[in-house]
Amino acid sequence: MKLITLFAMSLTAAMAAREAGAKVSAADAAKLGTTLTPVGAEMAGNKEGTIPAYTGGMKTLPASFNGYKAGDYYPDPFPEDKPLFTITHDNYKQYAGKLAVGAAALLERYADYSIKVYPTRRTVVLPDAIYAATKANATSATIVGDDGLKDATLGYPFPIPQSGAEVIWNHKVRYRGDSVIQNGTLFVVQPTGKFEESFFQTNAQFVYGNVKKPGTVSDNLVMQVLRKELAPPRIAGTMTLAWDHLDGSRDAWQYAPGTNRVRQAPIVAFDNPVIGSDGLQTVDQADMFNGSMQRYTWKLLGKKELYVGYNNYKLVRPELKYADLIRPLHLNPEHPRYELHRVWVVEASLKPGINHIFKRRTFYVDEDSWNVVAVDCYDARDQLWRYQEGFVIPLVVDKAVVAAPLMIYDLFSRRYLINNLPNEQGYIAKFGMSFPAGFFTPQSLQKQGRD
User: Which residues contact 6 (CB under 8 A, 6 or more apart)?
Assistant: First the structure.
């Protein structure tokens, strides 16, 4: 597969230095905000004009945002946009160079699946503090050991990445607001279209990427997350607390309502299954990828242009009900919006002697937001097994970027999973929430369980 990048000629020569972890020079860091965006994306559009230049994101809100209140569903800022063309089962091969392997597999297998491609809009806008911190990090941040982050604060640590691991770290600490409460949904869809649903609430306090109160080195924390299962009854009341650390480690605890006990939970990591996912989602597939990177080697393959789900404001609005979206074998293709964007491509290969259900994974990471937007997941026989995609939504009022929904397609069982489809939940997410002291502690789990 041919990789497309404006600096392809220098990529091969620099690869050895990249994988060795050489730091970015001051001269390269000076490109941030000039030829590169403040977070490291290419400022220029592509030569065909199908990817526009970055002009600062959506700084001026359309009239449709008048009266918007925090936590509301976002209006669609581009209601007049129409699809430029549609990629189908019959014509997908002519677009294969700009499709993830998993996307091509869906188009090949399912005659009623399609991808509607819209004009590309580079809408991402982030807080100025993130931009400033990112530039400062560019010449100082390093990875130590398997996956520890050192000498970086607040912003993206590696805006000019020199290894695959650096790209993934940018995803792991990308700005998602200072804190958030989100009502989550999880749908397990059978080949017939019949589905089971689970509901949960996620509370998250971001420590590293916190503009109001940036974390410190001594905190050694990326974030603290508390998830409470709400339905179905068999799992309702179960709570999971996780602390992700800058050294790559994780502490986790679970509360079981049946025993009224809190226990440490080392299973909240790697390829253990997520509660309610019927085995379709591993813990480290949540948020497209999370947690320790130590089981894989991470190779940076370069950059390419890819059709990805982007600016999907309509897809998660309350006008669309679950019945409108959930179909046998795949999401209803009438509603998602796809655009052409540049992505970093990272190949993760399982280390010898290490266990994980995925032997190899190919990650595609959006250059403007550092969100992982797609993942090809291969089994021990090197056969494509599962395909993940995340639909990027720049929440421009909150100056954060999220991905909703998150999809996992199992190409063997023909089942699929939908995570974070907020259409009937009342809101997408509430940012800037305040949590009481001690909220993200094992003791709090015990108290909440008893209450």
Answer: 42, 44
> What pLDDT does 187 receive?
98
Contact 408, 417 (CB under 8 A): yes
Structure tokens at 30: 């000076």
Cis peptide bond N-terminal to 422, omega within 30? no
Query: In the structure encoding, which two tokens stand for residue 295, read together?
Result: 């089981």
1 lies in a domain? no
Domain membership of residue 75 as a residue range:
8-450
The domain total for the chain is 1
* Cα gap 310→330, rounded to integer Å: 18
Cβ(51)–Cβ(303) below 8 Å? no
Find the angle CA(390)-CA(393)-CA(398) to the nearest 5 degrees: 135
Whether residue 31 is contained in a domain is answered as yes
Residue type, 160: I
φ/ψ of 428, rounded to 5, equals -80, -55
User: Cα-Cα-Cα-Cα dihedral of 131, 147, 359, 417, to 10°?
Assistant: -50
Domain for residue 2, yes or no? no
The two structure tokens encoding residue 379: 């089994």
Closest C-alpha among 282, 334, 262, 287 to residue 173:
287
Q: Which two tokens stand for residue 373?
A: 């937007």
Contact indicator for 226, 238 with CB cutoff of 8 Å:
no
Amino acid identity at 398: D
Structure tokens at 41: 């994306």
CATH number at residue 356: 2.50.20.10
Q: What pTM, to 2 d.p., does this model score?
A: 0.94
DSSP letters, 391-445, are EEEEETTTTEEEEEEEEEEETTT--EEEE---TTSS-S-EES----TTTTSHHHH
261 pairs with which residues across the strands?
A: 256
141-181 per-position pLDDT tens digit? 999 988 999 999 999 999 999 999 999 999 999 999 999 99
Q: Cβ neighbours of residue 380 under 8 Å, at least 6 residues apart? A: 359
- Residue partners of 315: CB distance under 8 A and separation at least 6: 309, 325, 335, 336, 337, 391, 405
- CA 401 and chain centroid, separation: 9
Phi, psi for residue 98 in degrees, rounded to 5: -120, 25
Residues of the chain short of pLDDT 50, as ranges, are: 1-20
Rounded-to-integer distance, Cα 438 and Cα 435, Å: 8
In a domain, 392, yes or no: yes
CA–CA gap between residue 222 and residue 168 (Å, rounded): 14
